[in-house]
Amino acid sequence: MATLGIPTPLSHLVERTCGGHAERVGLLASRIAFLLNVDVELALIAGYLHDVGKVGVCPSVLNKPGPLTALERQAMQHHATYGAQLVREGWPGAPAEVVTAVLRHHERLDGQGYPGRQTQLDPLTAVVAVADIYDALTQPRVYRPWVLAGPELVQALFAQALPRAPLLALCSLVGLRLPEVRGQRQAG
């Protein structure tokens, strides 16, 4: 990722905290971005950096196999704000859109996301959010060793209060079949 202008120390933080996840999200975000005419390079960078703030989360919280307490959840949610701060400080020339995507990749259209309970997502942030949730649902996690696939995955994705366009682009890319709606097949 250094060839994309990301400073090496920032890349090392990403690799130390969430290497495989960061790479998968970056690559998938860039593919979704291409389909939606969103800047592919910014999507790759933002997807790669989106969870860098997890370097500031206590490993016992990051690796906890069970449900998080309210305080642990708050500490985990702080990773978005801390990540944006790390990108701003570790890469003074970082594109503003990348910093925004790192900060807001857990926001949702229903206002139930974090850190700001926003109800709108810019296109780059939406692309990163969709790539992130897809990877989270299709890779085993310490707190959830099972993964979703097929109709259950589609249902979980569309329940995330994220913009439809990147969700439909994702489904097209990964070959997910959309459910029938009111006797008609959804476009996508």
Describe what this molecule looks like in 3D.
The chain has helices at residues 8-36, 40-49, 59-62, 70-90, 96-104, 123-138, 150-158, 164-174; strands at 180-181, 184-185. With 188 residues, it is mainly α. The chain has a single domain, classed as Orthogonal Bundle (Hypothetical protein af1432). The protein has a two-stranded antiparallel sheet. A hairpin with a 2-residue loop joins strand 1 and strand 2. It starts with 7 loop residues before the first helix and ends with a strand.
Summarize this entry quickly.
This protein has 188 residues and is mainly alpha-helical. Helices cover 58% and strands 2% of the residues.
Outline the fold blueprint:
Blueprint: H1 8-36, H2 40-49, H3 59-62, H4 70-90, H5 96-104, H6 123-138, H7 150-158, H8 164-174, E1 180-181, E2 184-185
Antiparallel strand pairs: 1-2
CATH topology: the name is Hypothetical protein af1432
Specify the CATH class: Mainly Alpha
Morphology: globular
Going by CATH, the architecture would be Orthogonal Bundle
Order of helices and strands: HHHHHHHHEE
Beta-strand percentage range: under 5%
Report the strand count. Answer: 2
Tally of discrete structural domains: 1
Give the radius of gyration.
16 Å
Which bin fits the share of residues in helices?
Answer: 55-70%
Our measurement of the CA-to-CA distance between the termini, rounded to an integer number of angstroms, reads 31 Å
Q: In this structure, how is the largest beta sheet organized? A: 2 strands, antiparallel
Strand order of the largest sheet: 1-2
Number of helical segments? 8
